[in-house]
Amino acid sequence: MSKVAILKCENYDRETVYSKIREGLDLLGGLETFFDHSEKILLKPNLLASSIPDKSVTTHPAVFEAVVRLMKENNFNIVYGDSPGFGKPERVAENSGLKEVADRYGIGFANFKGRETADFPQGNFTKQFELSNAVRETDAIMNLCKMKAHQLTRITGAVKNSLGLVYGI
User: Fold this and answer.
1) Residue 62: DSSP 8-state
2) What are the pLDDT digits (tens) for 61-80?
3) What's the number of CA atoms in the CB half-sphere (13 Å) around residue 59?
């Protein structure tokens, strides 16, 4: 059975967010429960469109920084990136505040521009689809979604955020 940790966090204060994310990960057994130190890990925030953090469009920089900080403190090899629905990825990362965090911690931006075909023979509707190069160039993905309302799906979270891994969506 899957384990879930839900913790209340009153605000986006950096230290508060860091403490809550650390506590949640500890309740789940720590980062080593999910990742191996030999892996290259893609941090996949929601970078839908170029917007400031207060608009709640993208993953908040305090959440991103808390995860980056925990990953770095535990010596994991990480990169980050997304394929925005609107705008250039680097510009969206800059305007959302994530690029500043990544630069401060020395985290590289993953290449979502190229694509590779992935076979999926057991698929009901399609037997192949195209994945962004970033997926193929990393060993694991940590989904840093932004929970928010969505016109089509009603809510957007981890499943919806994963669409950014498929090229052209």
Assistant:
1) H
2) 999 999 999 999 999 999 99
3) 30
Strands (E), 39-164: 40-45, 77-80, 108-109, 115-119, 128-132, 140-144, 148-150, 154-156
Strands 40-45, 140-144: parallel, antiparallel or unpaired by DSSP? parallel
Q: Which two tokens stand for residue 122?
A: 């057991």
Give the SS3 label for residue 143: strand
| Residue the block writes with tokens 């009153």 | 10
Point out the residues of the chain with pLDDT beneath 50: none
pLDDT tens track for 2-24:
888 999 999 999 999 999 999 99
Q: How is the chain split into domains, by residue range?
A: 14-165
